[in-house]
TrEMBL record:
Belongs to the RNA polymerase beta' chain family. Residues 79-352 form the RNA polymerase Rpb1 domain. Transmembrane segments: none annotated. Keywords: Cytoplasm, DNA-binding, DNA-directed RNA polymerase, Nucleotidyltransferase, Transcription, Transferase. This is DNA-directed RNA polymerase subunit Rpo1C. InterPro entries: DNA-dir_RpoC_beta_prime, RNA_pol_Rpb1_5, RPO1C. It comes from Candidatus Ethanoperedens thermophilum. The lineage of its organism: Archaea, Methanobacteriati, Methanobacteriota, Stenosarchaea group, Methanomicrobia. GO terms for biological process: DNA-templated transcription. One of its GO terms (molecular function) is DNA-directed RNA polymerase activity. It comes from the Archaea. It is an enzyme of class 2 (transferase). The keyword Transcription applies.
């Protein structure tokens, strides 16, 4: 932001040869005046704040300040896109070209060695297609300060979140001769998941609707007048009884990053997880974009699209300017809901008949539009290319007027 030709070590000295440096009282007024001067500029707030913070501890004359402001305005103007620039085409090229170098392998180990995550090109396709069910849904759960530094407390929260099924806690055997089902519970597994045999017995009884006999760590149920097939089906049902935790969360992995423990899950249920005590709801997130939109709103979904695409590109060692990705996220969420970029979303909703037909299912679009009597105003790029007219971009969208003499 600050050019080395404008401010350097010579400019920031307090030697006898330095002129126009205000004293302490005047300097306070000078800082106040240049702060208000910078804030009044036609620049984004973030640029103004950055400029103020950079100049805060520097000794400047008014001439130097004006020079810096002039240079900042010049650089900002240079960074603006020209009128009628094809920003969408530039973004498509900027994301598409590195995309050709991305791996086609669906599963990678990314960050967490114990959990498989979809990365590479398949993940980018998932994101821009706005898939309702991602192939590997995952939550990144941050904990509140009193839990995030203690592994045992983190583990307790993990057990509250992770789905506990009966087969996690013991062995299930089917006795065909006596027509009964026996569950042998593992005391260590019960203790680890903070459960008792009585709680398990009650849960099984409620689920199957049959009396369950408990003898220390052994559960037995003997249904009356059932066939062999029905007994096996009952055993299967008992095996999959959900005892505690959140059903959608199959597994939780604890990992220490920096100075805190973070939980990573296999499966996603953002709303349910945010309600668990000890979870920091302000930082917890999911890689399911539609779930983010449903729970936290469209702005959260937009930011999530940006973060997920950028993370996927970075993981592959690719560098793409975030503004290109932001444009994609804006287009996908501008109507207040997440839409895919495809014939069922953005491309399929174009006003132009020819643009829709040029994308996919050409005959269908032409027939439908012909039946309805649609009129194409030829306002976009694709339709003008098709009919051989100048495209309304750049100089093609500028009208020349003869100067009268």
């Amino acid at each position: 932001m600050i050019d080395s030709d404008v401010i350097n070590s010579r400019n920031c000295t307090t030697s006898l040869y330095r002129n126009n440096i205000p004293d302490a009282g005047e300097r306070g007024e000078f800082i106040l005046s240049y702060t208000s001067r910078i804030r009044s500029l036609q620049l984004p707030l973030k640029i103004c704040e950055t400029l103020i913070s950079e100049l805060e501890n520097r000794e400047l004359t008014e001439e130097e300040l004006e020079k810096i402001i002039e240079l900042t305005l010049k650089r900002y103007k240079q960074s603006s896109i020209p009128p009628y620039e094809a920003a969408g085409v530039v973004s498509a090229q900027s994301i598409g070209e590195p995309g050709t170098q991305m791996t086609m392998r669906t599963f990678h180990y990314a960050g967490v060695a114990e959990i498989n995550v979809t990365l590479g090109l398949p993940r980018i396709i998932e994101l821009v297609d706005a898939r309702k069910n991602p192939s590997t849904p995952m939550l990144t759960i941050y904990l509140k300060n009193e839990y995030s530094n203690d592994r045992n407390k983190s583990r307790d929260i993990a057990w509250k979140i992770e789905s506990t099924i009966l087969y996690h806690l013991g062995d299930i055997t089917t006795d065909i001769s006596l027509m009964k089902i026996t569950v042998s519970l593992n005391p260590k597994a019960l203790e680890m998941r903070n459960m008792t045999a009585e709680e398990v017995a009650l849960k099984v009884e409620d689920t199957i609707g049959l009396p369950v006999e408990l003898n220390e760590y052994t559960l037995t149920t003997a249904p009356e007048k059932v066939s062999y097939r029905e007994l096996l089906q009952l055993a299967k049902k008992i095996r999959s009884v959900h005892l505690k935790g959140i059903k959608e969360i199959k597994r939780v992995v604890i990992r220490k990053e920096s100075d805190e423990y973070i939980l990573y899950t296999e499966g996603s249920a953002l709303k349910s997880v945010m309600e668990v005590g000890g979870v920091d709801a302000t930082r917890t997130r999911t890689n399911n974009i539609l779930e983010m939109a449903e729970v936290l709103g469209i702005e959260a979904a937009r930011q999530s699209i940006i973060d997920e695409i950028m993370a996927t590109l970075r993981e592959q060692g690719l560098t793409v300017d975030i503004r290109h990705v932001m444009l994609v996220a804006d287009i996908m969420t501008c109507d207040g809901e997440v839409k895919q970029i495809g014939r069922h979303g953005i491309s399929g909703e174009k006003a132009s008949v020819l643009a829709r037909a040029a994308f996919e299912v050409t005959v269908h679009h032409l027939l439908e539009s012909g039946i309805r009597g649609d009129v194409d105003e030829l306002g976009g790029v694709t339709e003008n290319v098709i009919v051989g007219q100048p495209v309304k971009l750049g100089t093609g969208n500028v009208r020349l007027v003869a100067k009268t003499i």
